[in-house]
Design goal:
The chain is of the alpha/beta class. 40% of the residues lie in helices and 12% in strands. Strand 3, helix 6 and strand 4 form a beta-alpha-beta unit.
């Protein structure tokens, strides 16, 4: 008989979120009075736009206090469908093919639970967002890691995709712009991957497009827009990154009706619809963007300037290399030149986890180890921080690396 305290094997197999762990430790040190600078969290440091906040207040005052339809307000789903048509050339029925969720993370989890079966394989290009393999495990599937390299800009090649597909492959996780690397696939590169997938019609795609609006030197494209891909792709997106609405918890998925309905069924037994106030705010965000597509330019210009500064500083540090991210607000430097060195505390820096703990505990900088993203030679730094914080944090990182011997 199992012990009283035994957990579900699926939950026991999961790993806790490393980003949450590092962020939690950084907050604890701050509470103790340490001058920690956190470059670990994945959220913009800009306030939610005024019109979005005003719409939320107005919704409260107008008495929108009750539940909405399980897949979200009809007006919001229609606005999402209009956005997908306008920005991505994709047509979805808002009544049957769009589900509004409590953040993009919930959309991904629902999609995995809906389509993955025990014994299925889920392809996860690495470096990957920490939750992808864990959510695959929770759904009873087996994550299969497809490695990419800094020299290739962390982009998966068609050949690597082809080699990873088996008869058990059920789902490919595709994330562009990428968390944690900021890599963006060009339309031609996406089409090359779609050509491979068209030879394997049993493989579905989950396209995480949450950083769609945070792109600098590249053109965003959705794999769902490629020939033959719309009806086998689950598009996941949301408001947290582009509209600086992380705490509002609003995402969505757009998918063929048979998948969307299954996700809505799961949501109906888990959380039901997102908060009604948040939905009104999300509707205002899409209306704001539709009326003024340049409304995010100030934030994007700041991110671009910070990215360039961080890259210049990192590339001047011996033993550090870093591809140029074209989207999101992260850099993912290769710090393998420092692995195996000794810290002044006599600790051996065996991997990026050891390096991040050393930088946090002894130099008051929080970064996320690449180990959590399937790339132990790297680490993720978020440049969604003030110019002053970035300058001081990079000074501390440089000092910390210079002390290794």
């Amino acid at each position: 008989m199992p012990a009283f305290t035994d957990l579900s094997p699926r939950v026991a197999a999961m790993q806790p979120s490393a980003t949450m762990a590092i962020s939690g430790r950084a907050k604890e040190l701050k509470r103790q009075g340490r001058p920690v600078i956190a470059l670990s969290a994945g959220e913009p440091d800009f306030p939610t736009p005024g019109p979005v906040c005003e719409a939320a207040v107005r919704a409260i005052r107008d008495g929108h206090h009750g539940y909405t339809a399980n897949p979200g307000m009809a007006d919001l789903r229609e606005a999402i469908a209009a956005k997908l048509q306008r920005d991505n050339g994709l047509t979805y029925d808002p009544a049957t093919e769009i589900v509004c969720t409590n953040g993009g993370k919930q959309a991904i989890a629902e999609a995995m639970l809906a389509v993955c079966r025990p014994g299925d394989e889920v392809l996860v290009p690495a470096p990957f967002w920490v939750s992808y393999p864990e959510q695959a495990r929770l759904a009873g599937a087996t994550p299969v890691i497809v490695d990419t390299a800094p020299a290739d800009g962390y982009l998966m090649s068609p050949e690597a995709l082809e080699a990873a597909i088996t008869d058990k492959t059920r789902l490919l996780i595709f994330n562009s712009p990428s968390n944690p690397t900021g890599a963006v696939y060009s339309p031609d590169q996406i089409e090359a991957l779609a050509m491979v997938l068209r030879r394997h019609p049993h493989v579905l795609v989950l396209s995480d497009e949450i950083y769609e609006y945070v792109v600098y030197d590249a053109e965003f494209a959705s794999i769902a827009a490629c020939e033959g891909m719309r009806d086998r792709t689950i598009v996941v997106n949301g408001h947290s990154k582009g509209f600086a609405m992380t705490g509002w918890r609003l995402g969505y998925l757009a998918a063929p009706a048979w998948i969307a309905k299954a996700c809505a069924k799961i949501q109906g037994q888990f959380t039901s619809a997102p908060c009604v106030i948040t939905q009104h705010a999300g509707l205002a965000a899409y209306r704001m963007y539709a009326g003024d597509p340049d409304c995010l330019d100030t934030m994007l210009a700041a991110f671009r300037r910070r990215r360039d500064y961080v890259l210049d500083r990192l590339r001047a540090m011996p033993g550090v290399t870093c591809p140029t991210p074209e989207g999101a607000f992260y850099v993912f430097p290769d710090i393998s030149g420092h692995l195996g060195k000794n810290a002044p505390t006599d600790t051996v820096i065996n991997d990026s986890t050891a390096l991040c703990l050393y930088l946090l505990e002894h130099h008051d900088v929080a970064a996320v180890p690449g180990t959590a993203f399937g790339a132990p030679y790297g680490l993720r730094l978020s440049y969604a921080a003030s110019d002053d914080d970035l300058r001081l944090a990079l000074d501390r990182i440089e000092m910390g690396l210079n002390e290794l011997g």
